[in-house]
Design a protein that fits this description.
Elements (H helix, E strand, L loop, with lengths): L1 E2 L6 H11 L3 E3 L3 E2 L14 E2 L2 H9 L3 E7 L2 E6 L9 E3 L4 H10 L6 E4 L3 H11 L4 H16 L6 E4 L3 H15 L5
Parallel strand pairs: 1-8, 2-7, 3-4, 8-9
Antiparallel strand pairs: 3-6, 5-6
Bound molecules: guanosine-5'-monophosphate.
């Protein structure tokens, strides 16, 4: 599972990781946040309304779920049933703590920014969230960064190619070779 503050570049790193590691697949999370322009239901997220999200939580369909910056996010059990060599979860700190309990064998990676100022600059320049969302995401970032020592592996995203290499090496060490 891959965790780190919003804006740190998890999405870009994960896309690069999946391109380089055939057989690794991304778990598509469910969320109640509205889609961003260009996002498609079932591809970036399963977009659910809050009532359906609650119902599915009640039916035990989630491995983990959390509220992040005012919206709900969670990993559906069905996403982990894929016949893949490895499944990547991109989840927040609260979700990571839940998965650590329920799936203790999962590799836990934390992606850290070079600095908080760098994170702020990235969140502001990517322009995908309204100012209120950026503020909420920056508010929780110090708590998230303080928790990085809970993770078995920390990758600092100061150089994209270097960070991708670290992730690919990690994935290679986790995945058994094909028969
Ligand atoms: P965004 O709204 O930017 O796509 O995601 C916001 C945060 O929600 C990110 O830090 C991301 O890691 C987290 N997130 C995405 N999917 C899940 C999930 O399934 N469970 C949890 N707990 N967090 C998630």
């Amino acid at each position: 599972m891959i965790t780190g503050p919003s804006g740190v570049g998890k999405g870009t790193l994960i896309r690069a990781l999946l391109e380089r590691c055939p057989g690794l697949e991304l778990s598509v999370s469910a969320t109640t946040r509205p889609p961003r322009p260009g996002e498609k239901d079932g591809r970036e997220y399963h977009f659910l309304d809050p009532r359906e999200f609650d119902e599915r939580v009640g039916q035990g369909e989630f491995v983990e779920h959390a509220v992040y910056a005012g919206h709900r996010y969670g990993t559906l059990r069905s996403e982990l049933d894929r016949p893949a060599r490895g499944i990547v979860l991109e989840i927040d700190l609260q979700g990571a703590r839940q998965v650590r309990k329920s799936l203790p064998a999962a590799t836990q990676v934390f992606i850290a920014p070079p600095s908080l100022a760098d994170l702020r600059a990235r969140l502001e320049s990517r322009g995908s969230d309204p100012p209120e969302q950026i503020a909420r995401r920056l508010e929780v970032a110090p708590t998230e960064l303080a928790a990085q020592e809970e993770f078995s592996c920390v990758v600092v995203n100061d150089d994209l190619d270097g960070a991708v290499r670290e992730l690919v090496d990690l994935a290679a060490s986790m995945c058994a070779p094909d028969d």
